[in-house]
Amino acid sequence: MYHPHITILAERQMTAHRIAEQAADRAAAARLASGPLPQTAARLAARLREHFNPDMLPVQQVLALAEEAGEFTAAYRRWAGLARRSGTWHDVEAELADVVITAYVTAHVLGIDLDAAWRAKAEVVFTRGWRQPPPAA
User: For the chain, N or C: smaller number of CB within 10 Å?
Assistant: First the structure.
């Protein structure tokens, strides 16, 4: 049987090791997330290819994008008081960020330059005209 002090020291050592691992994970995540969104999406897609079947990745990402959009909608409903439970504005922000990140990763996986695509679409939106306001009563 071990002396209680040895057990305490071993637990502290394990805790210190866990803390060091978490710090390394945070540093790796910060490196992964640094830079413009298209480059971050490329790095995330590369990581996904390490863990998932690359042939299925396009389908997975399209489904993930739909899932994230649903999670954003649910977070907004909770915040707006339109759901059974309440939610925070931080949840809304975080879920919308998930949508944007997942959209960029999905675009990368599908070979779409999302920056070029949204710029082209914005040009169409701003040049197609706007709905006429209703007549004054």
Answer: C
- Tell me the one-letter amino acid at 94: A
Residues 20 and 1 in one domain: yes
Note whether 70 and 100 are same-domain residues. Answer: yes
DSSP secondary structure of 81-103: T-SSS---HHHHHHHHHHHHHHH
Sign of CA dihedral 62, 67, 72, 76: positive
Whole domain around residue 56: which residue ranges? Answer: 36-117
Query: pLDDT digits over 92-125, tens only?
Result: 999 999 999 999 999 999 999 999 999 999 999 9
Task: Calculate the dihedral angle through the C-alpha atoms of 56, 62, 68, 69, rounding to the nearest 10 degrees.
Answer: -170
Enter the tokens of residue 76: 């907004």
